[in-house]
Amino acid sequence: MPRLLRPITDSLIRSSSKNSRVFARFAHTVPELNATTTSGIPGLFSSKNIEQNWFNYQTYLVNSLNELTKDTGAENKTFYEIAKMTSQNPDLRALNYISSQAYNNYFFYYSVAPAKIDEAAPKEEFYVAPNSSETKFVDISTEFVNAPSKDYQVTSKIIDTFGSVTSFRELLINQATSIFGNGYVWLVYNPRDGQVYVVNTYNSGVPFGNSYAEAVESVEDAENETIYGKISNEARELLAEDKAKKNGIIPGLIPLLNINMWQNAWVDDYGVAGKRKYVENVWNTLRWDIIEARLNAVTKRGQTTEV
User: Fold this and answer.
1) Where do the TM regions start and end (predicted)?
2) What is the per-residue pLDDT for 91?
3) 163, 129 Cβ separation under 8 angstroms
């Protein structure tokens, strides 16, 4: 493993150019999205929001990452690989922060697209687990748009774990809006038991390193079981397993989707009281084909995708 020992400095932060979006001589660049600075993401973000929180911020992260990894052997590593390989070294905390945030931000913006004018999700049996005895969090007749296809593997996993797509949607929204401060809510897949879970991470935390232990603790300490339900019990088991491991890592969790809950990501477009509306609009713009592809990459090919 290459040594990455160069810390972030104030001069590096000051030298990050808002106008330069790609350092051609380095491997890390700002990836292209469907959104543009002229259209934003209709139904979710204004063009001003995309300019600030994607183009400008991701440019800063990429430029910083290129400077930090120059001549270290990690120039050709992905955001994901660098975040994972630095998660256990306190001396590399600054690099881990930059690489994790570059990964998280990219993962989120890559997963959304302009909202579609769609009919409400049909009230079909596939939205509820057959013969399920699980307590439902919400009325399964709730209508919403942009449901995942009933033919998707991820839909089956969601129903197996949460009882219905409707219950999962409400849990995801509630857990996202419960974040105070900055962070992300994630749907992750655990190859060891074949189930999916919803977890929160904070600041630049990722669900495949040390930060996951912190996420589990936040769920374990939650008093409102009507929001967390089954997830709280599963999280306790994972936390116990985590504490039993000397390196403190929960290995093998695969991110499927995340929602950016950093306040700057939504407050300008939605206002201080608009957090739930923002998360509902994220649901409406999720690209389930991409989420399904991430799960298939693991279950069918044994691979983990960068986004």
Assistant:
1) none
2) 86
3) yes
Read off the pLDDT of residues 85-130 as tens digits, 9 standing for 90 and up. 888 788 888 899 999 999 999 999 999 998 865 544 444 444 444 4
User: Distance between CA atoms of 215 and 72, rounded to whole angstroms?
Assistant: 31
C-alpha distances out from residue 168 to 53, 87, 178, 231, 290, Å: 27, 29, 15, 11, 18
Q: Output the CA torsion sign for 68, 73, 79, 80.
A: negative
User: Domain map of the chain by residue range?
Assistant: 10-110, 125-299
In angstroms and rounded to an integer, the radius of gyration of the C-alpha atoms of the chain is 19
Q: How many Å apart are CA 300 and CA 199, to the nearest integer?
A: 24
Find out whether 82 and 252 touch, Cβ atoms under 8 Å. Answer: no
| Fold (topology level) of 125-299 | minor pseudopilin epsh fold (3.55.40)
3-state secondary structure of 14: helix
Burial 139-176 (b: 16+ CB within 10 A, else e): eeebebbbbbeeebebbbbbbebbbbbbbbbbbbbbbb
With beta carbons less than 8 A apart as the criterion, state whether 287 and 113 touch.
Answer: yes
Partners of 94 in beta bridges: none
